[in-house]
Amino acid sequence: MGPVGPPDPNKRAARNVSSVKRQADAVPVTSDLVADVSRIKLYRKIGRRILPILFVGLVVAYLDRLNISYAKTQMQADFAMSDAVYGLGAGIFFLGYMLFEVPSNLILVRVGARMWLFRIMFSWGVISALMMFVENAWHFYVMRFLLGVAEAGFIPGVLLYLTGWFPAEWRARTTAKFLAGTVLAGILGGPIAAAILGPTDGLAGLHGWQWLFLIEGLAAVVLSFVLLASLQSSPDRVAWLTEVEKEAVRSDLRAEGSQTSTHAHVLVAVRDPRTVHLVALFFFSVFSVGGVSFWAPQVIAQSGVASPTGVVLLSAVPYTVAIGIQLWIARSSDRRGDRKWHIVGASVLGSCGWALTLLGSNIVTALAGLSMALTGAVAATLVLTIPPSYLHGAAVAGGLALIHAMGNLGTFASPYAVGVLSTATGTLTVALAVLAASPLLCALLALFLPPSLARVPRTAAGHLA
Of 96, 187, 192, 364, which residue has the fewest beta carbons closer than 10 angstroms? Predict the structure, then answer.
């Protein structure tokens, strides 16, 4: 044996810290210790750990979903594609998404969120990249449908995953922070597309739109491995929460469950009239959003902006305005323990936005109207926080997926309806009037929410939330 040197003070300090942590975790977890946990610090800590990767994943998902709106002009130059063809292709994504949403979420319950979300992200990235080989309308339809199939279950899967980390009083703001990824994708989508479409056109014999699909698709593939490495299935499996903090989360979720009348069987939940009510609310809210997502560039162009680059960059303005207001409305809903009136108010705001876009005649009113219409989409976010108040177990997975899938028929119908009406009338006027009516119907239906769904059950987690 060689000479034994003096002990390393750094290693000794690390062992001491580890020993102290083990002793702290070995202390019996009492109700007093759990009650003393600051819920604000706890749930903010959890949010900082798990939301960033999910948020970035949603941004990339929406970039891959919406990039056809920026590739449209170049694609039309390569093969015949009318507004009606484009609208159907844009919307058929949601048909595949709808058909596979519920099965996807039920599989997630069986195999775990970490592996299934990885599968979803990886497969949609591959299919999005393969969009570069589209040569005609039928190729366009098939690839958009397959993209919907691949991405099916990502949003409801994440929402189901979050119910295992956050109680009801924190769910609206947490859901809004996650879904703000869709808004950020709207902000970034235009500039990113502009940076790719022009400079890469003709590079290696490929068109700019082909490079757009390839680059944004591969981004999802890479990100899927980051998600696999960083995500954990539940609070019990992470090392960055103490035993007391883990018990605080479990206690809050148990308290929430004890205050709700629940269904555990997915088929019973599907037949529940409350689920049907929420499907209708979500449908009319996202029908309006589809108008912004796929037709905002054309609305801006018709308001007098001639430059294609200007149209792309100005398309980011409504998303920039909406993101902060949406988060504020969601936080207000949590703090006040109210869902009903926040859904009503947001929906009315969205309808007024479309009316302003319809009646205005310049870029200022167009941008203001689109911003208001997009802000109103927070109503859909609030709807998605309601199912865990009356469902649990597999029924939450099926219920969330069903509401999101059936409701997303609105996002399928919206771009197609606008495309057909625009082609038939030669103007967006009638289509904008239909988009203005949709959130009003959402507001009307929200007035009839039963009391058990209109309010948020209060637990210790809501104190000072």
Answer: 364
pLDDT tens profile 223-270: 999 999 988 888 888 888 888 888 888 888 887 764 444 445 566 667
Asked if 262 contacts 416 with a C-beta cutoff of 8 angstroms, the reply is: no
Q: Which CATH entry fits the domain spanning 51-233+246-456: 3.40.50.150, 1.10.8.60, 3.40.50.300, 1.20.1250.20?
A: 1.20.1250.20
Question: CA-to-CA distance for 62 and 290, rounded, in angstroms?
Answer: 12
153: left (phi over 0), alpha (psi -120 to 50) or beta: left
Task: Measure the CA–CA gap between 387 and 371, rounded to whole angstroms.
Answer: 28
Q: Domain residues of the chain, as ranges? A: 51-233+246-456
**CA atoms of 285 and 293, how far apart (whole Å):** 13
CA dihedral 402, 406, 408, 409 (to 10 degrees): 160
pLDDT per position as a tens digit, 128-169: 999 999 888 888 899 999 999 999 989 989 998 998 899 888
Query: CA triplet 135, 137, 138: central angle to 5 degrees?
Result: 95
